[in-house]
Each structure stands twice: as structure tokens, then as C-alpha cells.
## 1
Amino acid sequence: MGSRREVALSNVEIFGPAMQENPYPFYQELRESNPVCWDKSLKAWVVTRYEDVAKVLHDSRFSANRIDAATEQIKSPRYRPLLDVMSRKMSEKDEPDHMRLRSLINKAFAHVALERSEPLVRNRANDLLDTFRTANGGEFINHYAVPLPLLIILQLVGVPTPDTQKVKNWCDDFAFIALNYYTHLPEEKLEKGLKSVQEFRDFLKQRIAELEAQPEDNLLSALIAAEHEGQRLSVDEMLANTFLLLTAGNETTTCLLGNGLAALLEHPDQMQRLRHNPELIPQAVEEFLRFNSPVQYLGRIAKEDLELHSQPIKKGDLVLPVIASANRDPEKFTDPDTMDIDRTDNHHLAFGHGRHFCPGSHLARLEAVVSFEVLFQQSTEIRLDSVLLTDLEYRENFTLRCLKKLPLQIDFC
Ligand code: HEM
């Protein structure tokens, strides 16, 4: 095998500040000139073509267990409880452990039938949008796209309403660590994460006891009852995977709603077409997911020495399949940089691929479809308020592509 070919990208630091604004030209350059490249600062292989990304996600020689790649800082005895919780999430597991956890969680999910969630989502969506009426608009991200998925998942999981704010705070602290544990983190963030995990464990133990005594119709009760080959989840597995369910679907769906609406504001003709043809909304949501994917890249570890696109990947190397780049690969999609709600053959990778494919995709799609239906039902026109499309800013986060703010003027019916 040869030696590593590093990024030679017109002096641009990959995942550096210049990429924040618009990563897609960088992905294009990488796909064309260096589709599997080693990035020195990330100490990782960056994989950008559709075929290679799908291969990495499908190939069992790549492990989803990234715990060993965590920094020494977080591996220190003080933060061990944080790492312990992370290592019990199904998203960090390979087979057969992954399948055991996933089938237990799938059983619980099947219990919270999606058809029954639809009215809940629609009511919440209508209520949230009603709060925009008096001012004929408002800021969409923080007042609609953030609370909607959060309120839904908290209710589905079975967090009592008075506890929602504190559970949200614990989840935010934990999610920050869970997304960034292989980079150096400020001690105060780690301390906060640690405290939150401890408090959430106490809360959950008490809640489990309540639900064991008196089961309710929610995910937590279903998780307590779920069995796979005679086995149930331990308290720590329940803790880790409840955290995962509460966090994995929130910001991601927030990004989808914001990116989708921004794409429509940028393409008013397509907004009009959708407004008058709501049956196209599910297909449009798929296009939003492809065009500006909420999750930009995933992480895997090579379990053995192997070659990808003639690049020598060593056992233990971190590999980042960039799904957002795969979704713009011209080898897979016609005119990939064009947002087209009429696109039908849309096998995007926005929810991942293979064994870890997102189990919340149905819920996320439901939340997005209902949101756009409600937006169009309640309004006659939606415009940006006092900002230009070119002024919209994304959060400082390379994993998730999410707008900071989307101020709207809405003409209500
Ligand atoms: C637009 C919204 C969403 C996007 C873009 C998204 C994206 C993803 C992706 C790309 C993965 C694969 C991770 C990997 O292979 O390493 C994933 C996994 C996962 N997602 Fe989602 N997701 C969304 C919504 C949700 C929702 C609503 C939930 C739960 C209620 C959820 C729960 C999960 C869980 C538990 C996993 C781990 C599955 C496993 O490891 O087997 N997601 N998601």
C-alpha cells in the first residue's frame, strides 16, 4: 500500500471557518480531486463520493464504536461516567450488541405507532404557528423548529410536562459531549455534562420505578417491557439510549425544518408549486434532506488495514463518510446542486445507510411533512423579514448544518 495522500485544497483548511458558510464547493473539489483524503488536523480520512460513503457505512470492516478514539481528556477517571454512558448507546455498538439494543428499541418504537403520533404533531405544529399570528411572523428556528421536535419526543418518551425544561437542559449538555468527544473540550462543558448525566440517572431511576408500578402508553414504558431473547435493557442501557432518543432527533429535525424552508424561500417558484400541490410535500422533504443535509458527516473506525479508493487505511484510523457530499455527487444525482422538489429518484443518504440507518426517520419525515402542510394551510404568503438570504448564518457546527435564525413575515389566512 502507498502512503497517505493529504488534502491539497487551494490552501483551505477542511472543516475550517471558510467552509462554514457553504461547504458544498469544498465537497465538490474533494470529490473530484481527492475523494478519500487524509486530513492532518482532524486526523481522519474524509470520504466524499456517494459510492465510497455507502460502502463505508455498509462494510462491517468499519466499526461504529468510536469510544477508543475519544480524547485522553475524556478518558480520565473523572469523566469516565460520561464515556460509560456514551459507550452504551446503540449508535456506538457493532454486532451482535447493536442488534440486541436496536431490536429492543424498535419494539418500543413500534409500540408508539406513528399514525397515533400524527394528531399530536399536527396539534403542536398549529399551536406553535399560532404564536406567530399576532406579530404577523416571528423567528422560525427558535420559536418553531427547535420546540416542535423537542415537545414531540419528550411526550412520546414519557417525560412529564413539569420536567421537560430540566430534561432538555440535561440532554443539551450531554448532546454537546456526545457530538464532540473526539476533540478537546472546555473543562466546564465536561463538568456540566457529568452533572447532567448523574442527575438524569437519578431522574430516570425514579421514573422507571413509577412506570413499573403503573405502566403508561409511552416509549419509556415500552422500553421497560421490551424483551429480546429473554433479555431486557439494564438501567445504564436505558439511560444511554433514552438520552440518545431524546437527543438524536431534536437538532437534526430542527435543521431539516430550517434548511427546507430556507431552500423554498430561495426558490419562490417551488414554494408556490408546493403551496398549491401539497401532495408533493413528502417528495419535497426528501429533496430538502438531500440538498442541504442536516447531518453532514458520520464517523467510523477501521477494524483492519484496508484500501479504499487506493488509499491505505490502517486499523484504528478514523474515517468520516460525508453524507452531505454523497448527496451532491453527480455520479448519483442529475444536477445535484439544483434544488428540485420534483426529483423522484432520490436515494439520498441523509438518514445514513446500513445497520445504523436512522430508526427515527419516519417520525422526522412526519414532523417535516406536517409542518409544511400546516405552514401552507395557515398562510397565504411567507417571506424573509428584514434580512437577505445571503445574510442567513449557520451555527458553528460542522456535523450538523443548521441555521442560527430564520426571521419570517407571514400573511396569515
Ligand atoms: C431530520 C431528522 C434526522 C436526521 C437527518 C437523522 C439522521 C441520522 C443518521 C444519519 C443516522 C445514522 C448514524 C450512523 O450511521 O452513525 C441516525 C441514527 C439514529 N437516529 Fe436519526 N436522524 C433524524 C431524526 C431522528 C429522530 C426523530 C430520532 C428519534 C426519535 C432519531 C434517532 C436516531 C437513533 C436512535 C439513531 C442510532 C441508530 C443506530 O445506531 O442503529 N433520529 N440518524
## 2
Amino acid sequence: MAFQTKDEILHKILNMKKPECPHCKTEMTLWEVPEITFSDGLGWGTPYMFVCFNDKCSAYKEGWDNLKETTEYNASYRCINSPGTDNFEYMPVFSPMGGKGQILDNDELAIRKAYKEAMKQGFIVLTDFYISKAWDEILKMLLDPTNPPKVRLKAVDMIQELGGVEAIDPLVNHKFPFPKLQEAVDNCVKALHEKYYTKECPYCAEIIKKRAAVCKHCNKKIKNN
Ligand SMILES: [Zn+2]
Ligand SMILES: [Zn+2]
């Protein structure tokens, strides 16, 4: 992806079938990630996404209530999909117009401010967990789609350093919507396998010892090379 120009990426995406929102079954809209969230290093890592802009979508409607309890911002989520993947996550929006491209300058600044604040909060919480080596809590933050991508990227780093072998399964089973994040997680899984001398059984996908000749879960013979 990194070696393609934005135009090449767009051309490819325009030939894709638009996905349906898993919540409301509405066809999703192709959306250009605004410069502020793309180039400001906020971590989406993709210039285009599919977004569900249906105001009656349950993810969007319930988001207002959920976020009211957890943040000081009046905000909700829109369901998003990174083109070419089949996983769906969420981006925060701060008004019904949020993300629609008609945002006013003030709104844009508000989004930037809220993102920065969410990141700051996220890093503070991560640091606490890091100090107490609570990698399972850090894992929860990584899997939570409402955390800013940059916070989730930092969480991957920490799990790579602190995580137990039990971290591998949830990491492998979760599909991450942003190429950069997915790549970081893949590398983290590799590093954890190395650290614990384990690997994935090629037949049943259970975690086994690197040197195992027979899988203890499915009893298949494993070639070691
Ligand atoms: Zn929807
Ligand atoms: Zn097996």
C-alpha cells in the first residue's frame, strides 16, 4: 500500500463492491480521510475508507448514549471499513455532520482537539497499566475499537514487551481495520511466539511448542525445518 499513489489506491477501490454496514445493511459510502486525521499522524494509515452514514444505523444511534457515559464529549460512532478487508470498526464523530465532508472549520478544530484529548487520556491509562505490567488490560485497550489508532499502536508495542503467551490467541483472532495496526499486531504475534518458543499448529491453529513433532491438540505430525 505504501508504494501506491493515492490515485492508484482510489482507482482500485472504485472497482470494489461497496460493503454493507453490518448493523443496518445500508450500502456504505466511500470516504476520503480528511488531511487532519490522515497526515496529522492520527494513525488511520489509509487515505480512503468506507463509512456508514445512515443516521438510523443502530451503531450510530446507540453510540450517542454509550459515549455520553464515558467521555465529556457529545459524540457517537460511525461504522467504518478499511477497503479490501472484511472487518468493521468505528470512528468517533462529534456531530451528525461529523465526517461528512461539510464540516466547518470550528468543527474540524473541535475534532482535532477531541482526538488529541482522547489520545492523551489513552496514553495516561496505558502508562499506568504498563507500570503495573497489566498486559491483559493493555490488550483490552488494543481490542477496543473506540480507542484512537495511535493509542492502539502503542498498546501493541507494550504487549510485545510484556505480553504472556495467552495474548497470542486474542491477537490472532481479532482482525484490525487499519493496515498499519494489523501489521504491528502480526509482528507482535511473531515476537511473542519467539519469546515463548511456540508456534501455531498448521492444521488446527492451536499454539504448540516450536519443537513439537506432534500437535498435542489435533495429534497431527508436524514437520520441523
Ligand atoms: Zn450502519
Ligand atoms: Zn494441531
## 3
Amino acid sequence: MNRRHFLKTGAAATAVLAGMPMLTTGCRTSLRTRLMDGQPSTETKIPEMTADGYRILHYASLAPSGHNSQPWFVRIKDPDHWIIGLDTDRRLPVVDGNNTEALLSIGAFLENLVQAAAAHGYRVHTTIIAKDRFDPDFNPDLVSIRLEKTQPENMDLHRLTSRRTVKSHLSDRPLTPGDVSALSRLADGHLFYFPKNTTHADHMAEQAVANYIIQMKNRAAVQEMAKWTRLKDSTIKEHRDGLTPAGMEIQGLASWYVKYLMDPEDVTGQTFIDKGIEKTQHQAKEGAGWLVITGDGNSVADLIASGRRFQRMALEAKNRMIAIHPMSQTLEETSGRKSITENHSPGTIPHFMLRVGYLDKYPEPVSVRRPVEWFVRA
Ligand SMILES: Cc1cc2nc3c(=O)[nH]c(=O)nc-3n(C[C@H](O)[C@H](O)[C@H](O)COP(=O)(O)O)c2cc1C
């Protein structure tokens, strides 16, 4: 048995994967900045695009997405006319077979785009051009965007750069009615809060764990997760997407272990799967309960609208020191969806299930993004 194999299989491995306390790194540059080669350039590298356009798309790209797959592309028709589309190579066909999460993510991208455009002095006119996502001739062009020059609005773009998904250290202190109504307003009233220890919240926590276990028994779902997992810094820099150790909140010695001792195929192994289940069981118990964001329907327009509401709400949650953790496995699995719709008023269409809770300290973003020129098509 060589040294590497010994370390991989020994008790030490189990201990570190369980998540030991953070080791101080002494590194001042943020992890995201280091892995993304610094700040966005104001110099556009795309001939058809202005510096403002380039910066607006950089801010748009900071939107969240399932598995951090960043399923968007942008086609520049002319400097103020763009098409936003679904990059079909970035779909998650196993857990998101009908593109629900991809379209929700593109909605979040559009919300960031509109806010960044307002800050740069552009009003955005959007037209949904997609037909139906179940159409066999599904056209990946989704939204037509026209930018109209106007006065810059006083928008706080720091909210876009500092928001992140947060999965640890959520307080169980209930959300205040003031915070819930502020978030609900931004979600156009499509948001519902279920405080911890209520029947609904307990049910959502149980379902999150049960459906995570169902997925981890599905080889195809595990392999899809592995395909989007980036363990080493060199792989992260190469792809600038996917699930990284920092994004999965694997910290300290455990992070060192997964970066240097694990191979990509180990992500599909039983040890990693079991630790993921343990972590999910722990997470489902932590926090102040659950938010559900509902939609008006399941058309392309409905899903993009829900993604935009989610992102408006998530940006404000950050301001209020509220962690947002989407736990989508329940809505991805048929049995989970059925159980959630049966437990809510008839006609409820849940688009997001989010674990929430106040934070003492809002951690810095760590998930990486592709540079604008990687997702812009001429
Ligand atoms: C539609 C959607 C579904 C998501 N589902 C999950 C999920 O089931 N579990 C999870 O841990 N994170 C989930 N996320 C969060 C993403 O993993 C996260 O946004 C991505 O890794 C980028 O990280 P960031 O939000 O910190 O920028 C989801 C995000 C979106 C937009």
C-alpha cells in the first residue's frame, strides 16, 4: 500500500471529511478573486461590445445557478440588442430533465443584468422569444434584450458581488415579520415562510434529506454531480464553473484532503456519498426554517420571472444578514414534488425550496464564474 493510498483509506480520511475547523490561511486576497484572476476588466475583449456592455454582463454572470453550471449564453446582435439563451451543453439532464432550474438560473442572471444596466445608465426592454421548453424543436434563444440609454440609477452593485449561497452557521432565531414582508415584497408576494418546528418546516427538512438519499442512490445523478465537481485549483481555473470544495463548504484539513488526495472519480465513491448524506442531514436541522418561492405556471416566462424574484429577494436577504440555501432535490424528484404539492394549498407551484437563517458573519463569495468572453457568441 503506498502512502497516498494509506492516507485515502485510513481513519484520518474519515475524520477530515467530517469537516474539521478552519485552518488559518493567512491569505488576504479573496479566494474568488484569486481563482478568477482579479477584477473584471473594463477593456472589452469583444469587438461588437462596449465597455459598459462587458461590465453589465460580468455582473449578470455573478448570478447563482444549479451546480454552478452557468447555463447561459449571450448573442450580441448589435451593441444594444442582445439575445440571452440556454447553453444546451450546460444542462443537467438527470436532475433537471425539463430545464426548470436552468431557466430559474437564467432568470437570476437577467435580474442581475437589469440591475447592473440601471447602474450604468441603461433601461432594459425584455421580450421572451422562447416557445415552450417541452417543444421537441426547443429553440435555446430565450429572451431578446434591448438597452436604452438613460440616467444612471443609484444602485448598490456591491450586493451583486457579495451575495453567495450560505450553508453553514445558520441561526435558528425565527425571521422577523419585518424581514419576511420585505423579502416577500421583492418576490411580488410569491414567497412563503415556514418557521422551524412547524409541521410544514419539519416536512420540508425530512423531504430534503429523503430526496437527497434517493438521488445518491441514482448512479446517473451521482455521475452528473461528479461531472460538475472541480476539486483542484488548476481544474477550477480551467473551467471557472461547477462545484468546488469552497462552494461545498468543505473547509480546513478536509479541503486539503479533497484537493490533494482525492481523484475526480472518488466523488462517486461511497465515502464521499455517505459524508454528503451526513452533511445534508445536519444542514436540514439547522436554521430558522424554510422559504418557498412559488410560480404562476411552468412556462419559460413563468420560470424566468421566478428566477428574477428569487434573485431580488436573495440580494436583499444578504443585506439583512440572512443566509439562503436552495435545497432543490425535493423538487427534482417526482416523489418529493408530489409530497410538497400535497402538503400545500391546491394549485401551489413551488419553484424554490430555500433553507434560511440569520448569520453573525456573512462569508465572502467563493464560487467562480466564467469570463464574459467565454459565454458571449458573435
Ligand atoms: C435553481 C437553483 C438551484 C439550486 N439548487 C441547489 C441545491 O439543491 N443545493 C445546493 O447546495 N445549492 C443549490 N443552488 C446553489 C448553487 O449551487 C450556487 O448558486 C452555485 O454553486 C453558485 O454559488 P453562489 O450562489 O455562492 O454564487 C441552486 C441554485 C439555483 C439558482
